[in-house]
Amino acid sequence: MTDLNYDTRHIALLEALWGDGYLSPGGPEEVARVVKHAPVAGARMLDIGSGSGAIAIALVREHGAAHVTGVDVEPPVCAAATRRVAAAGLTQNITIQEVTPGPLPFEDATFDVVFSKDSIIHIPDKEALAADVFRILKPGGWFTASDWLMSHDNAPSPEMAAYIALEDLDFAMASPMRYRRALKDAGFENIVLTNRNRWYLEVAGEELARLSGPDRGAWEMTHGEDLIASSIETWAAMIKVLETGEHCPHHLLAQKPR
User: Fold this and answer.
1) Positions in the chain whose pLDDT score sits under 70
2) Is residue 218 in a domain?
3) CB–CB of 137/39 below 8 Å?
4) For 161, 174, 197, 244, which has the most beta carbons within 10 A of its beta carbon?
5) Residue 224 resides in a domain
6) CA atoms within 13 A on the CB side of 9
7) Angle at Cα 42 formed by Cα 46 and Cα 22, nearest 5°?
8) DSSP secondary-structure letter at 170?
9) What is the pTM of this model?
10) Separation of alpha carbons 245 and 41, rounded Å
11) pLDDT (tens digit, 9 = 90+) per residue, 60-105?
């Protein structure tokens, strides 16, 4: 893969699987589940790893956020998000900002809610991220996210290592225990972690069936035989570690004390 995690070919394939503007599983239904227990209506929000923009639009249109600032490090997805927001007529409610890896470029106590959908996996230092999110939240504010976790903090199993190699992304997976400790040490309270392994195991099986089933030829015509073949190999490897539980996507929820 290029230096980018998501080039235009991969963006197109992921959106075909997960919905226009979505670069992670579950579409708007999973976004709704992630924000279910956070007071999004009327909130000023930060979306970390905002991708190609559909989630920011959903947070405003479907969940009533007053304003969403979406940040990402990938120029192609920022460009796609900017176009999508403009087409939706929501430039007054959504700002897309390309950032560089590192501390979040915002003042203390800026946001009511910080949100992220399957992006923290690309940030190795979970402790620094938790502290930075705590800093930019207003007192009483909420951090609500989903992310791809590993069940332990030891070296990955051979099966997990093989899967990560096939993804060819800068995955920095950590355990639920490490996430909980990072959030607690940052000062958060009301911390809740919810294991989504069983849900995504079923969804991933459905995705693999779509790619490798009777419509494979149509997928190949649209996205290329090479990309579909490599995606099928990756999904099959991912399902193996979902089945063992070593790959365990989670929802994360925590509140900054008032």
Assistant:
1) 1-6
2) no
3) no
4) 174
5) no
6) 15
7) 45
8) -
9) 0.93
10) 35
11) 999 999 999 999 998 888 998 999 999 999 999 999 999 998 899 9
